[in-house]
Design brief:
- The complex is a heterodimer of chains A (396) and B (231).
- Helix content of chain A is 48%, strand content 21%.
- In chain A, strands 1, 4, 5, 6, 7, 8, 9, 10, 11, 12 and 13 form an 11-stranded mixed beta sheet that branches. In chain A, strands 2-3 form a two-stranded antiparallel sheet. A two-stranded antiparallel ribbon of chain A has the order 14-15.
- In chain A, strand 14 and strand 15 form a beta hairpin.
- The longest helix of chain A is centred in the C-terminal third of the chain and has 45 residues.
- Chain B is an alpha/beta fold and 231 residues long.
- Helix content of chain B is 31%, strand content 29%.
- Chain B is built from 7 helices and 10 strands.
- In chain B, the strands form 2 sheets. A 6-stranded mixed beta sheet of chain B has the order 6-7-8-3-9-10, sandwiched between helices.
- Chain B is globular, with a radius of gyration of 18 Å.
- The two termini of chain B are 28 Å apart.
- The chains are: A alpha+beta (396), B alpha/beta (231).
């Protein structure tokens, strides 16, 4: 066993040391693998970042109620009387000011994306006076809160970063009215940073929504426990509503888009990997052809075909692994933390950051090694079956 | 069987098919090689001398007949058993040296020792002994590209003898060297035969090289046509 390992180690060392003889071809394979890994990691980071932004937006302490069957806020309608009725439900946290709830409406307004100078949809959310208390980690980083009953808005830091025209103190035309930007808020990277917030009644008035809302945000008296509210809704036919914890709601919202990114990313990476695989096969077959006399000489000396096989396979794995590391470093430097925006579940822009996770790195390296393994296996098989008699053929 | 007989070839035939035609290289070839022989095999191109050497080295198999080494029929060995047999009993010396270009002389010589269960210091000692025998101990750390043709062939000889094989098979060992260097190499081979009692089989085109052997066999169209003994 020791002798076999020594044989394999000797052949591996020889193959690795002979790489400079095939430097351009080896480098091309290494780069092809690196590009495949970088592209895959970019998609995974995009999906991960989107999932983190939207999926982390929810809390188990809060619930969201919308019209039954609504898949998104835009499809939902809640009337004032339903809101009043729901505020009396058990299971809602109360304090001296009454039940901690916020009836909200959500309209789509126009914005200009800084990177492309194109017109995009942005969400303007009308929130009730207690709405800010129903969002964890919200901080006004600049300016002040809007005043109820006025055309004042505060903007999320993501909006400020990605879209033009929302700087503090600016006047902006949304719908038929002009609004003043009076503050900037940050929520620690959640989906709310992609929104504009204003007083719900002002939004109802300026967008002719009467007394309708689209959802009600509720603080739960027991985190994660919806049973009391669900029973209350089920018992009253006027309340044709669905209720989720906020975490469940945003988790569902994130899933469709992040799945789409994920299912686009992998097939693209695999298609590119096939190209890299062709390169790896070519490099390794060339390597075996160039080293045919060396391999046959070793076999003549008494080395087994197992060492010829593993020597070639390990060479391919080393090239692919180096390509994987290079791709990982490139992806990290190019994509980690960069900000982007895409269309979310409510047909409005969601700002998120690419997020490189350890599992994405692992996936990238595994993909590189799979390319190396397949790209090395068949040439290694050829090396192992090379006739020893080749050693006696002329080298001159 | 005579204790002195190392190799015995009995009724060896070798042929291969080219297109629809069967080409015969040997038909019913018989010969024996004794321990301590230094045998030169000469003959025109295509006479079968390299094929014979390949069969003696277990890298080619006869179509028919028995190839006995120390009484064992190696023509029936599997590929892996033959590899082990070569590691234990055979040293090869090639016309173009066949050294690993990225390894130093010492590392090239070490290769056959990796097939034995020897520790690092045992291997080091054997490498030093072999390189000293061919007069290259000073060049142990040089890679082949830094050595002359003659020096490379001496490294190849050191590699062939380092594991103390029973037989050395030399395929045109001086075919790529000038006359002066060829003589140096042939003298080393002769020394291995006379001083260390190594059995050598050397295929050569060169009558001058054959003179260093104790016996020369002339092969033509797969048959031995003449035998000369050294005077």
């Amino acid at each position: 066993m020791n002798a076999l390992l020594a044989q394999i180690a000797a052949v591996v060392v020889m193959n690795i040391r002979s790489l400079p003889q095939r430097k351009w071809m080896s480098l091309a394979t290494l780069l092809a693998v690196a590009i495949v890994v970088a592209v895959l990691l970019a998609f995974l980071a995009m999906g991960e970042g989107f999932r983190a932004t939207v999926g982390n937006s929810g809390s188990d302490n809060l619930a969201i109620a919308m019209r039954a069957g609504s898949q998104a806020e835009l499809n939902s309608v809640l009337m004032r009387d339903q809101v009043n009725l729901l505020e009396t439900a058990p299971g809602i946290r109360k304090d001296a000011s009454g039940p901690l709830t916020s009836a909200e409406l959500y309209v789509i307004v126009d914005g200009i994306k800084r990177s492309t100078d194109s017109e995009v949809n942005l969400p303007l959310r009308g929130i009730s006076p207690r709405g800010i208390e129903l969002r964890e980690g919200v901080q006004l980083t600049d300016g002040r809160m809007f005043s109820p009953g006025t055309n004042e808005i505060i903007v999320g830091s993501g909006v400020l970063r990605e879209f033009s025209g929302f700087d503090l103190g600016q006047k902006v035309k949304l719908g038929n009215a002009t609004w003043n930007v009076v503050g900037v808020f940050d929520t620690g990277g959640s989906v709310f940073e992609s929104e504009l917030w204003a007083d719900a009644r002002s939004v109802q008035s300026q967008f002719n929504r009467g007394s309708s809302y689209q959802l009600m945000r509720i603080a739960l008296s027991t985190p994660g426990d919806l049973s009391a509210i669900e029973e209350f809704i089920a018992a009253d036919p006027r309340l044709n509503l669905d209720v989720w914890t906020e975490k469940q709601f945003y988790g569902e919202q994130a899933k469709a888009t992040s799945d789409l990114i994920f299912y686009l990313g992998w097939p693209l990476a695999i298609a590119m990997a096939l190209g890299a695989l062709a390169g790896a096969l070519n490099t390794m077959y060339t390597s075996v052809a160039q080293r045919a006399v060396e391999i046959a000489t070793l076999r003549a000396i008494g080395f087994g075909n197992v060492s010829a096989f593993f020597g070639t396979l390990v060479e391919a794995l080393v090239l692919a692994f180096l390509g994987g590391i290079l791709g990982t470093i490139a992806a990290f430097m190019l994509f980690d933390g960069i900000s982007a925006s895409t269309l979310g579940g409510n047909f409005s822009q969601i700002v998120f950051s690419f997020e490189m996770s350890a599992s994405a790195f692992q996936d990238g390296i595994v993909l590189a090694l799979v390319i190396g393994f397949i790209g090395g296996f068949f040439p290694a098989w050829r090396a192992a079956r090379l006739p020893v008699i080749v050693a006696f053929r002329s080298m001159g | 069987m005579n204790d002195q007989v190392l190799f015995e070839l009995k009724g060896i035939s070798k042929s291969f098919v080219k297109g629809k035609q069967e080409i015969s290289i040997f038909k019913n070839l018989n010969m024996s090689i004794n321990k301590g022989d230094f045998l030169a095999i000469m003959g025109p191109s295509g006479s079968g001398k390299t094929t014979l050497l390949n069969m003696l080295g277990g890298v080619d198999q006869p179509t028919k007949g028995d190839l006995l080494f120390g009484g064992d029929n190696i023509s029936r060995y599997s590929e892996s058993k033959l590899a082990q047999w070569r590691a234990d009993h055979v040293g090869f010396i090639f016309q173009f040296y066949n050294l690993m270009p990225m390894l130093t002389a010492a590392r090239n010589v070490e290769l056959p020792l990796l097939l034995k269960n020897l520790n690092r210091s045992q291997r080091k000692k054997s490498i030093e002994t072999a390189l000293k025998l061919v007069g290259l101990e000073e060049r142990a750390k040089h890679i082949p590209a830094e050595l002359s043709g003659g020096q490379q062939q001496r490294v190849a000889i050191a590699r062939a003898i380092v594991s103390d094989p029973d037989i050395l098979l030399c395929d045109e060992p001086t075919g790529d060297l000038d006359r002066k260097t060829a003589v140096e190499i042939l003298e080393i081979l002769q020394l291995l035969n006379s001083e260390f009692n190594k059995t050598l089989v050397m295929v050569t085109h060169d009558p001058e090289a054959a003179k260093y052997a104790s016996q020369t066999l002339h092969l033509d169209k797969g048959e031995f046509v003449e035998q000369e003994l050294a005077v």
